[in-house]
């Protein structure tokens, strides 16, 4: 009972902290448009986690390299945590460039193929250390910095965009360690403060435009939902994270006197897709959006090689692929909702 009372007061605290949004923050809204502007970014550099990873974990250390991952695209596991394309692929398409290669494979392709940028994102990682084997955001930026002057020049960076994907691994790790829920708002502030340092560093290194998604509604991920629907306690915490992130972006843009930093509004885009009953033509309608296509221990088998998961008949009918990650069709819907305003905010350098 004491823990329930603490949770109740925690929600009240967070609600008071996020009361009143920060005005003047550049946030993508909910329209659809794909247009390549001639002066837009020519390279995409990606930092983050499994929402953006396109193959940086060595085989076979992650389920992203196991069947049935990748069954929609490219037809076999490719290191993406989905049945097909992920956030990075759709953002690259919006920019009118090819998906940048994963850092792990940079030595296996010619420099010509690296002209679209590079992806340093690594599934399971966070702003801080989440796993001993996962390079956190700071390490990923270190890897990027080591390539400057060799593979990429300062003039390259002046026509580039960075995606900084933070999808909640710091918080899931925090909860897994049974740390105090009452102290979580303090930790959220630490995560956003470190994110600010990361954004400043990427900008100082020379990247012209930096996009960071707001945190998606974690309480609506299948792993955390219940028969009552989304976990609104988790979503209240997400709203606090996002309100702090908005303040940081507003401050950074004020300092640079330029719309250098842009928030990609994943939170509202996810909710828009979930709530679509057919009235929003920009977004596909999913009958049961919170039900994953791959249920159970997706990608794993038992000692007799029997699947420890069940698979839906059509991944395109599902928004979520597994307990945490959207399907390719889910990501398609997210970027369709973000659409025109996202293009407008990111294609101007």
TrEMBL record:
A Pfam match: Lipase_GDSL
Domain of life where this protein originates: Eukaryota
Signal sequence segment: 1-24
Gene3D superfamilies in the cross-refs: SGNH hydrolase (3.40.50.1110)
Keyword vocabulary terms for this entry: Hydrolase, Lipid degradation, Lipid metabolism, Signal
Molecular functions per Gene Ontology: hydrolase activity, acting on ester bonds
UniProt keyword Phosphoprotein, yes or no: no
Biological process annotations from GO: lipid catabolic process
InterPro entries with a match to the protein in the record: GDSL (IPR001087), SGNH_hydro_sf (IPR036514), SGNH_plant_lipase-like (IPR035669)
Transmembrane stretches, start-end: none
Record family assignment: Belongs to the 'GDSL' lipolytic enzyme family.
Protein name as catalogued: GDSL esterase/lipase At5g03610-like
Organism: Brassica carinata (Ethiopian mustard)
